[in-house]
Design brief:
The chain has helices spanning 88-104, 112-125, 132-146, 192-203, 206-210, 217-235, 240-243; strands at 3-16, 20-27, 31-37, 56-62, 70-79, 169-171, 177-179, 188-190. It has 248 residues and is of the alpha+beta class. It folds into 2 domains: 3-84, Nucleic acid-binding proteins (OB fold (Dihydrolipoamide Acetyltransferase, E2P), Beta Barrel); 131-243, de novo design (two linked rop proteins) (Up-down Bundle), CATH 1.20.1440.120. Strands 1-2-3-5-4 form a 5-stranded mixed β-barrel. β1 (3-16) and β2 form a beta hairpin. α1 packs parallel to α3 (132-146). The longest helix has 19 residues, at 217-235. The structure holds zinc ion (ZN).
């Protein structure tokens, strides 16, 4: 039985029997991994507070085969989110991210981009007065992109022409954009600022994006509504609970 090592993010834990817990991780090397942490509910457990949700840990586990729970040997704290996760708004937002990741990502499939994004967002959201609404939008756009559900908003979906940065566009029924030359009456117009904001999210790190959100509130709200619809459609009606945005 090989020993695996990977930096990982704790997504959720469930109590199992008297002394054990099941923990769900997003690992840097192999995506989602579920495992049993034996004795982790005991008072002086070797895991300490490392299995608190959204902790970033160095994880060691044995894995027999991919269908079974792994056996967690060690979880060493790299970044504690204990303080941030005691704030209800942080907890609600990140618990939803954990739900969305389990809806979209396949277990045991490497997801390095998803890992890097979530890691960066946890660290930035733990800062004082972090903008959780903008963080949600950033996460949702990237989740759609990583899982292949985000339409390419840099070009017209009909004629393939690249949009000019100041050009208005129109939203079609599949949430793709078409240029005004390909226009069909009755479509919803999309201002260049809304399109450019989505493209900026794809280009910028979370920290870069968050430095300049205050002056774009209205645009963020409009983009956020469209992205939420994309996400709900991609997840399907059975996942309405996971996609619903919390009140923060
Ligand atoms: Zn066109």
């Amino acid at each position: 039985m090989p020993l695996h090592e990977s930096e990982s993010i704790v997504l959720k834990t469930y109590n199992l029997a008297e002394a054990d817990r099941i923990a769900l991780f997003l690992t840097r090397e192999t995506g989602i991994v579920r495992g049993v942490a034996k004795g982790s509910r005991r008072l002086h457990s070797k895991f300490g507070s490392a299995l608190e949700p959204f902790s970033i840990v160095n994880l060691e586990y044995f894995q027999k085969d991919e269908r079974e729970l792994v056996s967690i040997q060690k979880a060493e704290l790299v970044v504690s989110s204990f303080e941030a996760a005691s704030e209800p708004p942080f907890l609600r937002v990140f618990a939803r991210f954990a739900d969305l990741i389990t809806v979209f990502a396949q277990p045991n499939l490497p997801a390095p981009l998803l890992y890097r994004m979530l890691r960066a967002l946890i660290i930035i959201a733990a800062e004082k007065d972090a903008d959780l609404t903008a963080i949600e939008l950033y996460f949702e756009v990237w989740l759609l992109r990583i899982e292949g559900f985000l339409p390419d908003w840099s070009v017209c979906a009909r004629c393939g022409r690249e949009f000019d940065p100041v050009e208005a566009a129109e939203l079609d029924a599949d949430d793709r954009l078409q240029c005004t030359r390909c226009s069909v009456k009755g479509r919803r117009p999309i201002a260049p600022g809304v399109r450019n904001t989505l493209l900026r999210i794809l280009r910028l790190s979370p920290a870069e994006f968050l430095t300049d959100v205050e002056s774009h509130r209205e645009i963020l709200r409009e983009l956020s509504a469209i992205v939420f619809k994309m996400l709900s459609q991609a997840a399907g009606p059975n996942q309405a609970k996971a996609t619903a945005r919390p009140n923060i």
